Amino acid sequence: MFYTLPWRQYPAWLLIILGLALTIYALRRMPNPTKPKLDLVHWMRGFRQIVTGVALFLFGIAWLQHLPWLLAIAIFAGLQEIRESTSYLLTLDKARRWTTPRRAPAPH
User: Fold this and answer.
1) Residue 54 scores a pLDDT above 90
2) What distance in Å separates the CA atoms of residue 65 and residue 49, rounded to the nearest whole number?
3) I need a labelling partner for 41 at 20 to 30 A (CA). Which of 6, 20, 83, 91 fits?
């Protein structure tokens, strides 16, 4: 398995660095939830990026430290949260399309 490879720490460190970078990037771009006009779509996209970054970070830590239980948590919790936030995004996008007023065609 990957745990016993002599070079196993290099991809693990890559996953840790990518996970941290993605998490920090998403946190900085995420809109402030205390503002009165919060765009939920952008907030959920930021949340999904943060979850992905944390899952990558935990995957790398689990790989580096030989922790199969943490690897399972990182994979399954990460995938579940990504799936759930994607379904919320699809719902918000559909609601936005339904509530956007459509223009009447111009008379000829």
Assistant:
1) yes
2) 24
3) 20
Of residues 35 and 19, the one with the higher pLDDT is 19
Average pLDDT rounded to a whole number, residues 2-11? 76
pLDDT-wise least confident of 30-34, 54-58, 86-90: 30-34
Helix %, strand %, coil % of the chain (to 5)? 75, 0, 25
Task: Please give the single-letter amino acid code of residue 18.
Answer: L
Segment 100-104 shows an average pLDDT of 66
SS3 8: coil
The residue type of 68 is P
What is the pTM (predicted TM-score) of this model?
0.79
Residue for token pair 């995938």:
79
- Catalogue the long-range contacts made by 15-18 (C-beta closer than 8 Å, 24 or more residues apart): 15/56, 15/57, 15/59, 15/60, 15/63, 16/56, 16/57, 16/60, 16/61, 16/64, 17/60, 18/53, 18/56, 18/60
Length of the chain: 108
